[in-house]
Design brief:
Two copies of one chain form a homodimer.
Chain A (H helix, E strand, L loop, with lengths): L25 E4 L9 H11 L3 E3 L2 H7 L1 H10 L3 E2 L2 E5 L6 H21 L4 E4 L10 H22 L3 E3 L16 H11 L23 E6 H4 L5 H12 E6 L23 H10 L6 E3 L12 H15 L1
Parallel strand pairs in A: 1-2, 1-9, 2-3, 4-5, 5-6, 6-7, 7-8, 8-9
Helix pairs in contact in A: 4-5, 6-8
Chain lengths: 313, 313
Amino acid sequence: MSIPVGSGGTGDGNRHAGDGPDPRRLSLNTATVKLRWNLAQMIEGCARHGIRGIAPWRDKLAELGVAEAARRIRAADLTVTGLCRGGMFPAADAAGRRAAVEDTLRAVDDAASLGAQCLVLVVGGVPAGSKDLAGARAQVRDGIAAVLPHARAAGVPLAIEPLHPMYAADRACVNTLAQALDLCDALDPGGAGGVARTAVDGAPWASASALGVAVDAYHVWWDPMLDAQIERAGPARLHAFHVCDWLVPTRDLLEDRGMMGDGVIDLRGLRRKVEAAGFRGLHECEIFSSRDWWQRDPDEVLGVMKARHAAHC
Amino acid sequence: MSIPVGSGGTGDGNRHAGDGPDPRRLSLNTATVKLRWNLAQMIEGCARHGIRGIAPWRDKLAELGVAEAARRIRAADLTVTGLCRGGMFPAADAAGRRAAVEDTLRAVDDAASLGAQCLVLVVGGVPAGSKDLAGARAQVRDGIAAVLPHARAAGVPLAIEPLHPMYAADRACVNTLAQALDLCDALDPGGAGGVARTAVDGAPWASASALGVAVDAYHVWWDPMLDAQIERAGPARLHAFHVCDWLVPTRDLLEDRGMMGDGVIDLRGLRRKVEAAGFRGLHECEIFSSRDWWQRDPDEVLGVMKARHAAHC
């Protein structure tokens, strides 16, 4: 089966054909090469390898400075598929919760400066010492609600990233796509009036609603409700698509993600589902791998990443 | 708030009062002390500590022999809250799938010999080398369907245990209570005509449907749909309730579970929910802990387990 990602019509020079992904849709999440490169090197690396997108983390962004990073990213003609990250809303006291909101407001500004397609929200877990998961989830809802008006005004779509349930305690208590979309529907009903965006091949792409989701294969691949929820998200709420693989065995809860093809996730099937649901953005490769990929020469990592994207996504 | 677990009425000498759990409802899953004790020692340990229930794993059962184990468990007047485990249905070929079914049929017989309240099914993950999660799930459904008639005839309720999504690849591709209950509804519609059972305090308890679920706090605590699904399960499909705790940080995917009270799970809230939904069985403590609890003197472990059950469940 072939799902064309171009705008259709014969003789379209930009049209991508075949089973595999459009190679122009690969994006580098900077976490993948975070140990050995700074952001300037990552931008140069993407240009050198013909990678068209980048998703910086804020620590790398702060090192280089937002204005300088924006200048270099524009000069390299890279699409910023997302800024990682805002969120971490739950806290033991009101001051902590305010600080998280303020930090996320600053992240919105940074994302706007970069022209990022979204600000990824890793929403935070249960505050230390608490067993109140429902309370933490309510704090997440309040935190997003507090940030949303500024994000909307700044033209920065917020992307709630449901994290794998193994991170519910300490990183994100939003753990399924259904739960993330319930938040979207509650805080941004209808999802209308969003931010215009263009696919890398010039194909039509629905505007981004102010609040949507980041679908990361690693976090959602196991979900029995996944297909229906991707369809439910639809073109306006699908803000980002992240790829890597689930290794067997997985030796560490945080830093043992696999390169595409090395694990059990049917990435091609998943990519087709998000594209069938209207996603026209890039496929962002985000790999936490302290023992393997982080130890390698980043030029090797980018080369393998390109080949695996073509073969498995 | 107090939820009485007795049969009600004033002057009932067996009635348990207060916020905490009825101490007679604690059961030892043999995994908790597996490194240092054999099954005979576990049975003696339960008697010595006034623990009223036990849930053997089959490796320990095989060492002692089923008939001898059954004799000793009866002599100690222990309730067998479950036999661990059948399942592991998906396989790369038909011979592998047949072997899993045959092994589970033998487990049904063992569970019957022990008078176990259920046979726990850990359903299995994705066969090695496969990326076909949906196919594995179909194989699970077929495997359970193949075992169910014999289990029904033997009077052994089957309990599908949804495992935490971090085990989807290699241990169980049934990962939420909703998914497990969908299987129950498909294979055992109505759930009627089940196995009679009596609560430890003599309170009325609904018959067990032939196919139900084991609710393990460790596996399900994060689930946004948990409350509704516990209610959906109801008295007839709630076959087992397992407790331990989710540690922060969790250092190993398999063998770093916490003792009740040491983690983030609101166990008292969860216990109340399953009891409000009609569960009248025991609270089975199952802790995989290669670095901590498995290294301790099992008599110490049982003492702490009793105290933590009273304080946190």
